[in-house]
Amino acid sequence: MNKKIVKAPKAPQPIGPYNQAVIISNLIFTAGQIAIDPKTNEMIKGGISEQARMVLTNLKAVLEGAGSSLEGVIKTTVFLKSMNDFPAMNTVYAEFFKNEIAPARSTIEVARLPKDALVEIEAVATI
Prior knowledge:
127 residues, alpha+beta, CATH 3.30.1330.40, 6-stranded mixed sheet
């Protein structure tokens, strides 16, 4: 198995012992992205809409750093601190994934996320 580690300079740097993404064959597996500003490496201020927008911007940067794009995403997993935030997250998500390119998706409510984020999103994409 030949795996390639992705280091995307325009995305937040990992805050633990993991990589932004790993490529195997023509598949990219991203780490979960939270609302960290890549310029400051700090969580942004704001609610679910602001965090979801930053998360998806970071995900886009990781994918581009891996040689892909949002159009290459085939599956996402969305982790929400509260399922009550689903409508607002979904509105922002639709700005990034239009119907014609929308991937398969799972959404899960979790007890807690790193840095007390409201949302985290990971993806599987093709190159």
